[in-house]
Amino acid sequence: MNQPADSAGVERAVAKGLAGQRVRIGLVGCGVVGTGILRLLRDNAETIEARLGAPIEVVGIAVRDPSKLRDPLVPAELVGTDPMALATQDDVDVVVEVMGGLDPAGAVVKEALEKGKHVVTANKALIAEEGETLLEMAESTGVDLYFEAAVAGGIPIIRVLREALASDRVVALSGIVNGTSNYILSRMTSAGLDFADALAEAQAKGYAEADPTLDINGGDARHKLAILATLAFGARVDVHAIPMEGIDTVSALDIAFASRFGYVIKPLAIGRPTDDGELDLRVHPALIPESSVLASIHGALNAVHIEGAMLGPSLMSGPGAGALPTAMSVVSDIVDVGRNLITGAHARVPSRAFRGSTLQALPLASPKSHRGRFYLRFDVHDRTGVLGKIANVLGGFDVSIEQMVQEGGQSEGNPHATLVMLTHVASAGDVHGALEEIDRLQYTTGPSRALRIEEG
Ligand code: NAP
Ligand code: HSE
Prior knowledge:
By secondary structure, this protein is an alpha/beta fold. It folds into 3 domains: 5-153 and 323-353, Rossmann fold (3-Layer(aba) Sandwich); 158-319, Dihydrodipicolinate Reductase, domain 2 (2-Layer Sandwich); 367-453, 2-Layer Sandwich (Alpha-Beta Plaits), CATH 3.30.70.260. Helices cover 36% and strands 23% of the residues. The chain contains 15 helices and 16 strands. The strands form 2 sheets. Strands 7, 8, 9, 10, 11, 12, 13, 14, 15 and 16 form a 10-stranded mixed sheet that branches. Strands 3-2-1-4-5-6 form a 6-stranded parallel sheet, sandwiched between helices. Helix 14 packs antiparallel against helix 15 (428-440). The chain is elongated, with a radius of gyration of 25 Å. Residues 1-19 have low confidence and may be disordered. The site of L-homoserine (HSE) has 11 residues, from helix 8. L-homoserine (HSE) binds next to helix 8.
């Protein structure tokens, strides 16, 4: 058995009766991330022990189907099917939940916290939906509940917000926080793949959620934005109240038109306090200038742009999904918990960056009140007067056109045409009101499309 490496750590560990001990983990889930954790623990064992002062030992693994073919590095003798047993077992110091979903993950984490065990999780759905209860439980019992891997995979954004920016006020954040949707749009843009093929690739690479609907419809990014908003703005956030749009309505046609105007389409998550004391939180795809920093974040990379009142602008980018980057974040959390075990420093840093008693339930800005420029696409019968009618409706809603192109139509021997417009600044409520009317009056052959333009 290895001894803790650092001498001061050894002294404190001896004082606490921890000398010679290992940090013993129960691994709840052993899929993409769980297997990545085992690989990282094997390949980086030496450096981890040198940094932590004790080795990390896996004492049990819970999966759903033990008969599944697994990577040979998964020790078959440790594999069982009872996550709850790991949450209660005496020889587990840290429960590592990489199973995903709310049920039974929530009950397992609760049980672990009740039993005084520390928990590390990569589960953004759980932290966004039930984090308030769980984190309060952890705070009141003085155990650690860490979740670095829950947002932006391998990017240490949670630690940055919690610790590095502890003296600043965050005035805005924006970013790409879902690797799968960024991967899909990137592959559709760069390789001309269709949506289904790009999604299949992202799934094969281990980026997607077990149910990829959450990646595609914005649900996963919304979970992450809710977590970021709490850490950045000290806000209690009802995740379900955050407006979201997915990338499922972005077509290859939109990507091509955006490019003609000098834009790329990216899946964004945006948060900022407004002057009226509200929080503007949104998840949606948007056109951003090809020259902007987020435009160069391709594939499963993520990036989070933070504007600190004192710091100014700052960008962190890196792998947002995948086995090893995610495992790296999980194991760094385990190292942190291990250091706290050795020094007895649990809960020194509040998990949510702010003391729980100071968190505020700020009202969310209505998505209709958002003002900005828009990309609009209309599929129409190419008949005299249609363009004028559409322009009239837009004008009636105070939506003014800045640029327009038409493709297809009778001049090209086609009865249908596609009209694409970029607007001047308008309110989202007006734009959607105008589009509803245009579609209702049947000036179009299919639903009209609006995407926001963010200036990047
Ligand atoms: P995954 O590949 O689907 O693995 C899930 C694991 O949990 C599997 O081993 C599965 O068992 C096990 N499991 C599921 N339900 C169970 C149950 N009721 N009882 C016991 N075991 C159960 O998922 P993943 O991609 O590793 O993701 C795990 C978590 O990490 C999720 O919360 C996800 O959001 C998060 N995350 C993933 C990534 C990524 O890039 N993949 C990045 C950041 C965060 P079987 O093996 O028998 O099916
Ligand atoms: N499915 C998630 C994504 C995993 O694609 O971003 C990382 O949280």
